[in-house]
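Sample intake sheet
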Amino acid sequence: MRDYRLGRLLSEAYQILKGNYLALTSVTAVFAMVYWLLMRLNPNLLDLTTFKEEGLFKVLATLLLSQIFTHAFLKKYYLVLIRQPEVVKANFLQALKHTFTDGFSKRLKYHLLHIVTLFGIFVITTAFFAVALFYMKEGSFFSTLSFESVFKDIESLPSWFKALFFLVLFVVQAHFFMVSYIIQDTLSEDNILIPLTYRGCLKHSIRLMKGNKGKYFALTAFSFLVEFVYVNLVAKVILTLMWSPLSFLSVGFLLFVTFLKFITVDTFMATANALLADVLLTEEWQIAFFGGENE
């Protein structure tokens, strides 16, 4: 197996990004535009303390669309480009078509199941901590069904409780990091082997992540660090220098900062995640075989 310690992984991801920047960022830019359109449909998506109960379905639908686009398209494209960068750059439109059409209907079905699985994990974890919260707050958490009061209670929780919640959620979901990437390979029309069932994808992901969750944790921690630096340093500096009293210009600068993050930070981290997945998949012959060499 190739060396995939964090430093080596990030270095290789940087070289891939550097050599294929336009091929990667052009697709990421499309995702940015899709994300922007989804935000236009639901401007309160990121402000969970303001949306009302009647807007919950709209929020969930928006999140579902963004997750489907990410899992079913972007991750497939990144895998294809990492494995065959020269082919993708020479046949960019064909590569995009391949990304969309290669076993798409089956991949879409599996990805929907995966999103439901992740949401179920979130609900179960939240319910477990909600019970603990009930005893900590002596029932005040369930005194009303208002979203505003629920989030107000959450904000008043001790930092260690919120940190523990996200740590447990992260550890549980880390077992399923490989599922989206496994789906791309096993359901490819070029795969010679019999495709895995969705349950098989879950089992292989858990097995592949055994002994590798530390590397995934390190990569995720680095991602949070980069996001923190960008939001608290780069973005604030840009907005401070470019902010305008004219509201439409201020919104334009904010969109510029968001778009810049998509084509730099997000593109780099997506490349690093796909590279880690490719390293693990390359050594796993029971998932997919493309003939000659496991791509």
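Comment: Confidence is low (pLDDT under 50) at residues 48-54, 141-147. The chain has twelve helices and no strands.
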